[in-house]
Amino acid sequence: MKKIYYYSGAVFLIIILFLVGFILLIPVDGISSKNMAMINLDGTISSQTSESGFFSEFEPSVDDYIEWIDDAEKDSNIKAIIIKINSPGGEVIASEKLSRKIKEASEEKVVIAYIETMGTSAAYQAASSTDYIVAERQALVGNIGVRMEIIHYYGLMEKLGVNATTIKSGIYKDIGSPTRPMTEEEQRMLESIVDESYYEFVSWVAENRNMTINETLRVADGKIYSGVQAKRVGLVDMTGTEEDAIEVAAKMANLSNPEVYEYAGSSSVGIFGMTFNDALCSFGYGFGKGLSESNIEESFKSYQIYY
């Protein structure tokens, strides 16, 4: 009986080693053989990487995007970078970090944005950091603005007969508390933060799109534009497809035969539905949540600010 277990274990080990060796021997078409990189910016721009595994989808954090851009920027074979955007925006600090990195890369190489389905709020800030923006005709673009949402449930507490006692060290320590009304002074304080963030957002877009502050303010009222409308008001440079974006990037970088390496793309080797890059990562989610606590255990801090 022991021999059966021994031989079964040996066979299992051999199979595992064979599979690992097979995967390692699969020819991976790496970035070093390409002359153009495409970074897929999908979903919410966040400082946190989602839980991932063999049966769950890998969602990159801003650090992953920055690493990919940095990798493409430092590769001497890569002459142009395309940021392919399908994102509604994201956290304040994460979005600022990403925009700064894109701007840095654009000073070294050709970097253009391609807005496929949506490039709004902080995702548009990222797009505006590039040298050129191509958007699908019916993509959603813009939504430049800031909002802060404060949830109050003290009215419901009163109806349920629930009371809350807050012991605090400073007069403003529980600002935005959902268990009491907000004072006019507190509201003015939070409005000043929103106004400050809004000015930073507008200034960034104005500088990178070569627009005046007044020109930017006219389109920075939170409105969402189609790609066609965004072209009309100066938020994108042209409407077109992914192929058009590649063609523009190739022309700007003087590439006659563009070959694209895609980060987080769907054309790599798949393992249980994940891309090869995603599988590697599984071995080792408005500008918003970066200014507030997102942990449900600290939900009493109900104020959040969004781009």
Automatic annotation (TrEMBL):
GO biological process: proteolysis
Pfam entry (one): Peptidase_S49
Alphabetized UniProt keyword annotations: Hydrolase, Membrane, Protease, Serine protease, Transmembrane, Transmembrane helix
Residue span(s) of domain Peptidase S49: 105-255
GO molecular function, one term: serine-type peptidase activity
CDD domains for this protein: S49_Sppa_N_C
Bilayer-crossing regions: 6-28
Family: Belongs to the peptidase S49 family.
PANTHER family linked to this entry: PEPTIDASE S49, PROTEASE SOHB-RELATED
Protein name stated in the entry: Signal peptide peptidase A, Serine peptidase, MEROPS family S49
Species: Methanococcus maripaludis (strain C5 / ATCC BAA-1333)
